[in-house]
Write a structure and sequence with these properties.
The protein has helices at residues 8-16, 25-34, 52-66, 97-114, 130-133, 138-144, 151-156, 158-165, 172-175, 177-192, 204-218, 255-263, 270-277, 282-289, 296-312, 314-329, 344-349, 353-359, 366-374; strands at residues 21-22, 38-43, 70-75, 125-128, 196-200, 223-227, 240-241, 244-245, 339-342, 351-352, 378-380, 383-384, 391-392, 401-405, 409-415. By secondary structure, the protein is of the alpha/beta class. Helix 18 (353-359) packs across helix 19.
């Protein structure tokens, strides 16, 4: 990139690898230099928690605030009722209003760890697009907003075109999503003076729609900026593991498992992830990422500690590192490992080892657990497990039992007090 930004925000995010595209980089840079710029990212409430796939853009909002600008976290209480069709092969399940509200309440807990909310010029605010979408009059909306959209142009967007090219159904409900998201940008400009929408590169078409609509309706210049869609160096989608999504809420994924996800980063990704997911100076990220052989583990531990501290706090990061050291270096069990607590009656009756691997989150299903055992990937108390029919009794749990899947995923089974 030849353009050298003047604003701290653009300089930092370009240097650290956040920028994929921008609608007008130089004009946005000028706006950032002229005063506080409100900017937003939208989050549909499709699950109880945000996951690691969202973390890149949460860090983008954090850098925005750290450089003196105003983050807006827009919760999709309205748009979640429709569902974003972008690059999906089928329609999202529709959620009830109560389920959406519960998901938003749970997601708020995560944002508060990364952003400072308040009434100051650069304090973050959280809005819900249901505030303006729920009360729309359909005919007025079609006349005032719908007339600015060309169906021909909407069909040309890759997120829609790819679905149609594969002859996969795209409902009229989903087709309306991009109009509603564009309308969000217009409303945020009117209500908050919002000048910038940010998001993953799969949102480029939706963002451009909002910019074009705002220009047509109120003749204002606003901007769009996207981040790259990340995959790991071995081609996996960022934020996915064998056990499923890497959630940011501790109730859905323990801080230890979260820490372990980052500790298991592929060598080639360490430097890049340090720049994106921590606030370490770039030169330190480059130095740690360039380590070779076993020394790269130092960089992985720094990465795991820094990311876990931001998400769960310094105490949780220290406890996770101590547990990992106990498990891997000293052969212990580690008090912070994920746990399965059996009732006394369950233990007296006996529980199958297959069921315990599933309940511990070390296997997705009984079939998956049996495959793990048959392939030699399961251990009990560090000893290979060869019998999928084994029943665990109260006598086996006089001390906590350690389950292991592969080399790096562990859990403890005990009888609840």
């Amino acid at each position: 990139m030849t353009y050298k930004p003047k604003s701290d925000f653009l300089r930092i995010i370009i240097e650290r690898g956040f920028l994929a595209d921008c609608t007008d980089l130089q004009s946005l840079d000028d706006a950032l230099m002229s005063g506080t710029v409100p900017a937003y990212i939208g989050y549909d409430a499709t699950a109880q928690s945000l996951h690691v796939g969202h973390l890149l853009n949460i860090m983008l909002l954090r850098w925005l605030q750290k450089t003196g600008h105003k983050p807006i976290t827009l919760m999709g209480g309205g748009t979640t009722k429709v569902g974003d069709p972008s690059f999906r092969s089928d329609e999202r399940p529709l959620l009830s209003a109560d389920a959406i509200d519960r998901n938003i309440a749970s997601m708020k807990q995560v944002f508060a760890k990364y952003l400072a909310y308040g009434d100051g010029a650069s304090d973050a605010i959280m809005l819900n697009n249901a505030e303006w979408l729920d009360g729309l009059n359909y005919l007025d909306f079609l006349r005032d907003i719908g007339r600015h959209f060309s169906v021909n142009r909407m069909l040309s967007f890759e997120s829609v075109k790819s679905r149609i090219d594969r002859e996969q159904s795209l409902s009229f409900l989903e087709f309306n999503y991009m109009i509603l998201q564009a309308y969000d940008f217009l409303e945020l400009y009117r209500r908050q003076g919002c000048l910038l929408q940010m998001g993953g590169s799969d949102q480029w078409g939706n963002i451009v729609n909002g910019i074009d609509l705002t220009r047509r309706v109120v003749d204002a210049q606003i901007f769009g900026l996207t981040t790259p869609l990340l995959t790991t160096s071995d081609g996996r989608k960022m934020g996915k593991s064998q056990g499923g999504a890497i959630w940011l809420n501790a109730e859905l994924l323990s801080p230890y498992e979260f820490w372990q996800f980052w500790r298991n980063t592929t060598d080639a990704d360490v430097g890049r992830f340090l720049k994106l997911y921590t606030e370490l100076p770039v030169e330190d990220c480059d130095r740690l990422g360039a380590l070779q052989g076993s020394e790269i583990n130092e960089g992985k531990i720094v990465l795991a500690n820094a990311v876990t501290t931001l998400c769960h706090g310094a105490d949780a990061a220290r406890a996770a590192e101590d547990t990992a050291r106990s498990v891997f270096e000293q052969g212990g069990t580690g008090d912070d490992l994920p746990r399965v607590d059996l009732t006394r009656s369950e233990a007296d009756e006996g529980v199958s080892i297959v069921q315990l691997f599933v309940r511990a989150g070390l296997a997705k299903s009984g079939k998956d657990a049996k495959r793990l055992i048959s392939e030699g990937g399961a251990r009990v108390n560090d000893e290979p497990l060869g019998d999928a029919s084994r029943i665990v009794s109260a006598a086996d749990l006089a001390t906590p039992m350690k389950l292991t899947a592969g080399r790096k995923r562990h859990a403890l089974v005990s009888i609840e007090e």
